[in-house]
Design goal:
CATH superfamily: HUPs
Number of domains: 1
Distance between the termini: 21 Å
Radius of gyration: 17 Å
Strand content: 5-15%
CATH architecture: 3-Layer(aba) Sandwich
Oligomer: single chain
Strand order of the largest sheet: 3-2-1-4-6-5
CATH topology: Rossmann fold
């Protein structure tokens, strides 16, 4: 696969056209979400092209009540085919034995493994997708600036970011035009700093 040539081919196409191309290209596609700000955009766009696309939600158990309400509203509004994955230990139990370690704490790696990496691997092993839709956009982190519309995951899966070149203003317009909600009080316990990579993409 010539990723560079494909990216050039897809540049200038609409997100819907990119999604349609990727659905046709792969055998099994999924979209992942954590219901952070602007997630309704990618979920709406993917469901418009493939209504029953599996929506993999790895819920760390540490989302804000606002995020959970937003998730429930979006799932219902878009009639999403959600596949929920949660850590094997509850947040309440982990709070007692570990808490939420600071980024410099040696336990932070184990924490991230428990609440994010293990549920994600479990989801991917069960669904075995060859196309993975994400809402990555340039300008979010240094790593995300280094990828493109199409990139390959560590294990060779095709990662597709249909809104890669879109600005926040573009996303706001999409939300308004499609009567979609947004929740800004989002908390990722593994990131601590807003400009850190979440772990799944780096």
């Amino acid at each position: 696969m010539d990723i560079k040539a494909l990216n050039e081919e897809l540049r200038g196409k609409t997100p819907k056209e990119i999604i349609e191309w990727a659905i046709a290209y792969g055998k099994k596609a999924v979209v992942t979400t954590n219901f952070r700000p602007y997630e309704a955009v990618i979920l709406h766009a993917c469901a418009e092209v493939k209504k029953d696309i599996p929506v993999i939600w790895c819920d760390s158990g540490y989302n804000t009540s606002n995020t959970y309400r937003h998730a429930e509203e979006t799932i219902k509004q878009l009639d999403l085919n959600v596949k929920l994955y949660v850590p094997k230990q509850t947040a309440a139990h982990r709070d007692v034995v570990m808490g939420i370690p600071d980024i410099n704490d040696p336990k932070h790696k184990e924490f991230t493994e428990q609440v994010k990496m293990e549920p994600f691997r479990r989801a991917m092993e069960e669904h075995k997708p060859d196309v993975w839709f994400t809402n990555l956009r340039k300008g979010q982190t240094a790593f995300r600036d280094s990828i493109d519309i199409l990139s390959l995951s560590a294990d060779g899966m095709l990662k597709v970011s249909p809104f890669y070149d879109w600005s926040d203003e573009d996303m706001d317009k999409y939300l308004a035009e499609n009567n979609l909600g947004i929740e800004t009080k989002y908390f990722d316990p593994t990131k601590v700093l807003g400009n850190r990579e979440c772990g799944l993409h780096g």
